[in-house]
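Memo to structure team: turn this sequence into structure tokens by end of day. - J.P.
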Amino acid sequence: MSNKKNNDKTQPDSTDSSPEIGELDQLRQIVFGDAQQQLLIKITTLHNDLEQTLNAQDKKFSQRLHKMQESFTQQLDDLDKRLHFVDKMHDDVEVTIQKEHASLVSEHEMFAAATQQDLKNIEQTLDKESVSLSNTFNEQLEQLKTHLEEVSKELSSSKTDRKTLAKLLATMATNLEDDQL
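Reply from structure team:
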């Protein structure tokens, strides 16, 4: 039979090999028929069970994957919302800071201008007061000089002694000091 098998391999299209193959199948059926049939049933059952299990696992995996994708998408949406909220809050704070800065700059400029104007006004007032005091002091000095000359002339003409003149001059000096203060 091994020669025939070799011949079958070398000459697959020969007409003699067909009946031998049929006989071989019959012999196999007789010897292994029930065991082969049970084995085929077990293989088919195992194949079906395996296919059902794989389908169930595929469904579970698909469901889990879908849930994970939904969760991931939801988390990304939440993160995006938080990020937009923080961006908006940052922008609002930045706008507020810019407004406050502009307001402070404006107030500073107004305060600087007002301070400069006040300083000019104070300087002018001080200049006027200084001139006024200087004029008043000069007038009083002139009056005192005139008065001193009059008193000197009076003393010279009335021939008063020197002690009286010294007292008069001391009194005038005291009056001048009091006027200056």
